């Protein structure tokens, strides 16, 4: 095979066309999984093509040609797959070839699921959405279609839990089978006949099945079975000499019976005695649990005893039973009692035996050491199983409407094999219109056969468990486990033990719900079942069963005035009670087309109502015209059992007398008209959560004083509230209090809330004093209050990690004890315009990571680090100190943990000389410091310096920042509108960025084991000339330099790009501004290398648009080590493309910015100087191989490159990787307050 530039294809026969094209992403795969896979292919004589070093800067035509030449394309989808434009372009080409019947795609889902790819969910989807910002709509559509197309093809799933060797063996075996099928098919065809589509489907679908399981008639019917078999066999582990019992569990229809039957058929010959008993549940009900033991004995000893008498048991027959190993499979066990009857103490079972027990009730096998949860089918397997029954040819349809509809039906079944089978059979004779209509009605009119499938499990529930089941389905799907248990369980989880009954845990054990990562989830099939059976209504008896959730049902009942007696029971007829309880009503007001006038007694007889929710799924706020329920004559209630009340825009000034809070656990009345809750004191001891937010007429909350168990209280936007009652001190469980936006709040009582962790008082514009009301506080929001002084008692807040004082315009000083807050991580003082001084820190703030001081009245930079005057002078005269020990980092002041420092908008004239000691500092914001004249040497890990609008800035440090090899590779330095920068300063900036680029590139090349990361260093400053150091310069936006034939030698480390941009209209700049360069290197035969590089820019969400008042120079340094590496490996000293074409452009979030003009541009090759070692040691600090290796290895796993992302993502300060640090996002989101 002829080699292409910078490529190497591994193949057993270099002259043969590749049989398999491997498409994958990421060096972590290349050096592990892909390396092992290559060796396996080589051992088995499989020709394959793979890019040696993942060089994505070369001509794609070469790769596309290899795809066309291949018979199979192996698409390895990993979590990082969508970082690469190159991989996605290859996938589009693979899709085109497969649709033309010229290729078979075999997807490998490596630690991602087909559902994730199909729905573009999680990080996988986020990375794609970030990537498509830089491409056109056509390309984006092709990528999305290709991903969804590939996700529906049957492939091999790998979740990281099984041995990779098994995975590789499976891949090799399946590739060999597909190649064999292709060869057989080719032999049957005429030489130029195209491969039929149906055969292509057959080839691809065979990937998930082994030959000892699947034949051509049932491969789709048994989709996904092989993987589950392998996982179960791994649990049973025949190499283990002891007896092993494995419990297999899963929801109805998930495939437990099929799985254990298949296992029994495969393994029974391995044991001298074997028994497979089915329907244990029914057998136990019919004959009694004790009879099960005799049935097992009869099956095991039938060859020895003609008759098994009633008095024979395991103990009496132990010696006979211990003579031989047994394989026992018990299907559909329903209780621990049945397991005990089947196995007794299992001392009668010989060592080395294996027992499998399948069940729909996890408690039945809870005492077993080994269990296996049968997983749902993935999307590809679901599609194939559905298609087996829905189409006469048993194969998935071509891409189109039927394929899309099939995917939607498969998604509805959520991987349940039996449900897929039922749906497929029901749709077999229907046309496309029938399918569409059926899909629309599935939620309201579910399949009767699916309902029958689920009914057995439902019928075994107790009354309390059934109610809990319905409540979860209608109210609390995806809710926090503790929250749901508090509202649904009959026993309070705060007062319960592991032995206490819990309906939620019972449902989880019976597999009607699942609890995953602390959240209660319910399968869509169960949700549909619950809503169907939990909201039935009998017109004859006027009785509801459990739930009313359909708005049409509610409107009809309200119109006929049947609601008032839904919960009534006939006098002296308690037997009818359970059939007349309507325990929940859930009404979505957005579903009502017209306003509904309701009788004032509509809820007057609902004494058994436990859950009431009136909401708007389209808007959760006070939207005009959205409130559809009117009570012209008021509202009478009799709700004594109410546990949960959510009523958006509650229309009354007070809760009706009939709503008793004695059982109430959660009360939500956002945007209500309420003025007070109750006139008299009530029993509110069970209340845990109260939300009265934006109830603008609420003036007092004394009705909550008895809520001793209250945990969260949201009073945000209650603008008539002036204070809190003193009695709140008794709320010992309160952990969250939000009073943000209570503009009439003037004071807080002197009280102590011992458990309070989060206190939000933001925008309480009349609050002038803040007493410390809890020493347990962790997050304190005082944003935009009238506070003048923070009391010294703040020293007691030793658990506080966030203090937000943003826009406190009256704040004049901070207490000296601030440094004693040892847990403090984030301190926000932005906009405190009267704050003139930051206190001198006498203690070391070891945890502080974010300090925001923008817009304050501070005129001197805080003394963040202390050192003596002589030490300061020594530091100034020694620009490259040993920063780990110099000037006493262990002394008082901020520790080197500080990550972000914002000083923008202040009247600073200089920065602290020893700021470079802030070794971990990554973000330094100096925007609009109008009096700042100079910047000293900066820390080595700095990721972004933004000095936009520093009108007086003249000088910068020499060097700009400490030149040391650290894990921080990507750096941006912005000096826009710094019009007084002298030429020396500009030269220092240019020199530093160039040296930093060279140093990092050289270090990576030397000490990083050949794994090449791209370094990107960017800067911009006022100017109208391309620096003289650029070898190739030109006017306009296009540059076409001709390079020497041998320009890419071993010293090449990267390229430097420069653009001079003119801003003719400085008043309309965008927050997102990028200067990009499309680079193309070619020979006389055409382009070979093409990529787009970002030269510079910024992205500032929420900030004012930047107004640039003159021409500016943008410079970016981009590593090119991978080009050099490939060139040397593949061509030695041969020539590479020498004709270059560079096109510069300016873009914002909407595309090209026409008003900005590229005046001049420049390009230069950057090479490692001969004295790089001397520069490193003498001028840049100690970068020994050991130190450098440590620095690089520490960060490599989190850093990115062109090989990782293909381009760079702009951050708040230009170019950066995507691993930004975030703090306390959950609390900030709850408070609806921006950190900055």
UniProtKB/TrEMBL annotation:
Its EC number is 3.2.2.6. Pfam families: C-JID, LRR_3, NB-ARC, TIR. Residues 196-207 have a biased composition (Polar residues). GO terms for biological process: defense response; signal transduction. GO terms for molecular function: ADP binding; NAD+ nucleosidase activity, cyclic ADP-ribose generating. Keywords: Coiled coil, Hydrolase, Leucine-rich repeat, NAD, Repeat. Residues 188-207 are annotated as: Disordered. The keyword Cell division does not apply. PROSITE patterns: TIR (PS50104). Gene3D superfamilies: Helical domain of apoptotic protease-activating factors, P-loop containing nucleotide triphosphate hydrolases, Ribonuclease Inhibitor, Toll/interleukin-1 receptor homology (TIR) domain. It catalyses: NAD(+) + H2O = ADP-D-ribose + nicotinamide + H(+). This is ADP-ribosyl cyclase/cyclic ADP-ribose hydrolase. It comes from Brassica oleracea. The lineage of its organism: Eukaryota, Viridiplantae, Streptophyta, Embryophyta, Tracheophyta.
